[in-house]
Design goal:
By secondary structure, the chain is an alpha+beta fold. It folds into 2 domains: 245 residues, 2-Layer Sandwich (BirA Bifunctional Protein, domain 2), CATH 3.30.930; 93 residues, Rossmann fold. Helices cover 39% and strands 20% of the residues. It has an 8-stranded mixed beta sheet, with helices on both faces. Strands 13-12-14-15-16 form a 5-stranded mixed beta sheet, with helices on both faces. Helix 5 packs parallel to helix 9. The protein starts with 15 loop residues before the first helix and ends with a helix. It binds adenosine-5'-triphosphate and magnesium ion (MG).
Length: 423
C-alpha cells in the first residue's frame, strides 16, 4: 500500500463527532451578531503581504515570524495567508467605499494562519470570529463591544471568563511614554531576553507583551502608560468604565495590557480564562483609529475584537455545557426491487415534510439494515418490504426506547410523518 499523506502540522480536521459543537457555536454567533445589528462580510483568505506589514506592524511576532508568505510564481506577487481579519476587513471597506453612507457594523468568521509552535489552544490554522465597528469614535461603541461579548458568553453558557481593560492613549501620549520606557529598558538591558533586546528600540511597547516568565518581574516594574495618558483617552477610558459598571460587567484595569498588534490605540481589552492553561485569552480587541489612514483610506475612527473559536470551544467542553448532537429523525430501510425504488420517493416525501431522513443504501438483510438504523442515532425507522409495497403502507418503529414500547405500526405516509414529528 502507498504511504499515507498526512495533514500539515498545526492544521486540524474538525471531525463529524465534533462538528455539531462548531455548528452550535456558529449558529449562536450568527444570531448574536444579528441581535446587535452587525452585518456579515466575507474576505478572501489570501492578501498581499504588504497589507499585513503596514497594518499589524513590521516589528511584531506575527509579521516577523508567523506569516505564511510566498511568491505567486505565475505573476510574482508577494502573498500571505491572512493571520487575522481586521486588516482585510478594513482593506475591503476602503476598496468598496463602504463608509460613504455612514458608519458600519461588521462581523466575519473563518480560518487564520500563523506559523507558531502548535500546542493546546495554539494552532497554525485556527478560527476567529471578528467584529469591527468602523466610523465610530467611542467610547459608547467600545462599551457596546464589551457588553456584546458578555452576552455571547451567557448565550454560550460560558463561565470563568474575566475581563481586563487598558488604554493605550493617543499616538502622542504613546510617543511620550515610549521615551520613558526605552530609558527604563536601557537601564535593565542586562536582564532582557533576546527578543526584548532586539525590540527595545524598534518596538519597546511590545516588550511589555512578553510571554517569557523570566521577564515578568521586569515588565511589572516598568513605568505605566496610564501616567502619561492624554486628556481625550483618559476621559474615554473613564466613561467606558462607568458604562461597564452600569451594565454590571466586572473588569480589572491591567496597565500592562498592550496587545500584540501595532494598530491599536485608546481602549484595549482581553477576555481571559484560567481554565485553559497558558493559552487563556479567548477574545481580544480595542480601538484602532489610525488604521484606515495607515492603509490608504480616509481617516476614520474604528474599533473591534476577535475571538479564538478553538479556545472558546475548549472552554465550552471544559465547563460542561451540553450541546445536542445533530441526529437524523428517521432511517428508511428497504428490501426487494419495488421497495428499493419506492424508498427513494418515501425518503424525499419525508424530507418534504421537514424531517431529516437517511435512506439505506447498499442493500443487505433487514437485520443488518436495522443495525445501521440504530447506529445512525435516528429516532425512528421506516421499513419498506414487499408487504408494505403491496399495501402502500409504511411500517414505523421507534428506535432508542425500551424494547416493549418498540412494536411496529403499519401506517400511511402522512400518518408516519405525524408520528415521527410528534416526539
Ligand atoms: P496570544 O497572545 O495567545 O498569542 P494574540 O494576541 O496573538 O494571542 P490576537 O491576534 O489578538 O491574539 O487574536 C485574537 C484571538 O485569537 C486570541 O485571543 C486567541 O483566542 C485567538 N488566537 C490567536 N492566535 C491563535 C492560535 N495560533 N491558535 C488558536 N487561537 C489563536
Ligand atoms: Mg500570538
Amino acid at each position: 500500500m502507498a504511504k499515507t499523506v498526512q495533514g500539515v502540522r498545526g492544521m486540524n480536521d474538525v471531525l463529524p463527532a465534533e462538528a455539531h459543537r462548531w455548528a452550535f457555536f456558529e449558529e449562536t454567533v450568527r444570531r448574536w451578531a444579528h441581535a446587535y445589528g452587525y452585518q456579515s462580510i466575507r474576505m478572501p483568505i489570501l492578501e498581499r503581504t504588504e497589507l499585513f506589514v503596514r497594518s499589524i506592524g513590521e516589528v511584531t511576532d506575527i509579521v516577523e515570524k508567523e506569516m505564511y508568505t510566498f511568491k505567486d510564481e505565475l505573476n510574482g506577487e508577494q502573498l500571505t495567508l491572512r493571520p487575522e481579519g481586521t486588516a482585510s476587513c478594513v482593506r475591503a471597506v476602503i476598496e468598496h467605499n463602504l463608509l460613504y453612507p455612514g458608519p458600519q457594523r461588521l462581523w466575519y468568521q473563518g480560518p487564520m494562519f500563523r506559523h507558531e509552535r502548535p500546542q493546546k489552544g495554539r494552532y497554525r490554522q485556527f478560527h476567529q470570529i471578528g467584529v469591527e465597528a468602523l466610523g465610530f469614535a467611542g467610547p459608547d461603541i467600545d462599551a457596546e463591544h464589551i457588553v456584546m461579548c458578555a452576552r455571547l458568553w451567557r448565550d454560550l453558557g460560558l463561565k470563568y471568563i474575566r475581563l481586563e481593560i487598558n488604554s493605550l492613549g493617543s499616538a502622542d501620549a504613546r510617543a511620550r511614554y515610549r521615551t520613558k520606557l526605552v530609558s527604563y529598558l536601557e537601564q535593565h538591558a542586562g536582564e532582557l531576553d533576546a527578543d526584548a533586546q532586539r525590540r527595545m528600540h524598534s518596538n519597546p511597547l511590545r516588550v511589555l507583551d512578553s510571554k517569557n516568565p523570566q521577564m515578568q518581574a521586569l515588565v511589572a516594574a516598568a513605568p505605566k502608560l496610564a501616567d502619561d495618558l492624554d486628556e481625550v483617552s483618559a476621559q474615554a477610558f473613564t466613561a467606558l468604565q462607568a458604562s461597564l459598571r452600569a451594565a454590571d460587567i466586572e473588569f480589572s484595569v491591567n496597565p500592562r495590557l498592550v496587545r500584540g498588534l501595532d494598530y491599536y490605540n485608546g481602549t484595549v481589552f482581553e477576555w481571559i480564562t484560567d481554565r485553559l492553561g497558558a493559552q487563556g485569552t479567548v477574545c481580544a480587541g480595542g480601538r484602532y483609529d489610525g488604521l484606515m489612514e495607515q492603509i490608504g483610506g480616509k481617516p476614520a475612527p474604528a474599533c473591534g475584537f476577535a475571538m479564538g473559536v478553538e479556545r472558546l470551544l475548549a472552554l465550552i467542553a471544559e465547563t460542561g455545557v451540553a450541546i445536542a448532537e445533530q441526529i437524523p429523525d428517521v432511517y428508511v430501510l428497504r428490501q426487494g426491487e419495488a421497495a428499493l425504488a419506492w424508498g427513494e420517493q418515501v425518503a424525499e416525501q419525508l424530507r418534504d415534510s421537514g424531517l431529516s431522513a437517511v435512506l439505506h443504501c447498499g442493500g443487505g438483510s433487514f437485520k443488518s439494515q436495522m443495525k445501521r438504523a440504530d447506529d445512525s442515532g435516528a429516532r425512528y425507522a421506516v421499513i419498506l418490504g414487499e408487504d408494505e409495497v403491496a399495501a402502500t403502507m409504511l411500517s414505523v418503529k421507534a428506535l432508542r426506547i425500551q424494547a416493549r414500547q418498540q412494536e411496529q405500526r403499519r401506517v400511511t405516509l402522512p400518518e408516519a410523518c405525524e408520528i415521527i414529528k410528534s416526539r
